[in-house]
Amino acid sequence: AQTAHARPEDRDLFKSSGMQDVLLKPITRHKVESLLAKYLLGAQTDQRRSSDAKDMLLDISLLDELIETMGCNPTRQIAKRCSAELTFILKEISTFLATPDGDAEYLAKAAHKTAGTCALLGAVYLHSLLKKIEQALIEEKLEEVSRLRRELDSAATQSLDVISKAIDDSNDVT
């Protein structure tokens, strides 16, 4: 459905009535391309998928909503902050794992904060990984923290590249 009704309950109503997706105004090239890729390429990649969260590195509708609400430059600043927070948390986790007598509680709080920034940008997979890291730190599961850190490192660059492209595309259209 393509509509000007942008409330979350409108979206839910459309989807519950059988629509596969909703394209909200204002329409941007990035929104259209994302939906086309989702449905045209989605069938080809279904067999390669490993988990629901990883399949969807970004909830592009959340990112588009942020861009529409705040504009491209403030969203770009949030993305830069997210990148800096991710760089920090990756470095701190590596340091912590090398000398595990560090402050796991502090690191768990930093992961929690960074997860919030990722969620704001619609980076759902990064958010999910950071929440798992937070929990693993609290439970002192160092092997799990190490595994999740490697996964976060890999996903961070990919997600931030997609976010940057989406912001640039929105800037081109507006």
Pick out its properties:
8 helices; 174 residues; two-stranded parallel sheet; mainly alpha; 2% strand
Q: Any overview of this molecule?
A:
- The chain is mainly alpha-helical.
- The chain contains 8 helices and 2 strands; from the N terminus they run E-H-E-H-H-H-H-H-H-H.
- The chain has helices at residues 8-16, 29-45, 52-55, 60-70, 72-98, 104-120, 124-138, 142-173; strands at 2-3, 23-24.
- Strands 1-2 form a two-stranded parallel ribbon.
- Helix 1 (8-16) links the parallel strand 1 and strand 2 (23-24).
- Residues 42-55 have low confidence and may be disordered.
Low-confidence stretches: 42-55
Helix content: over 70%
Radius of gyration (CA) equals 18 Å
**Main β-sheet, spatial strand arrangement:** 1-2
The largest sheet is: 2 strands, parallel
Number of strands: 2
Identify the overall geometry.
elongated
Question: Proportion of β residues?
Answer: under 5%
H/I helix tally: 8
Overall pLDDT: 79
Structural class: mainly alpha
Order of helices and strands: EHEHHHHHHH
Spatial separation of the terminal alpha carbons: 22 Å
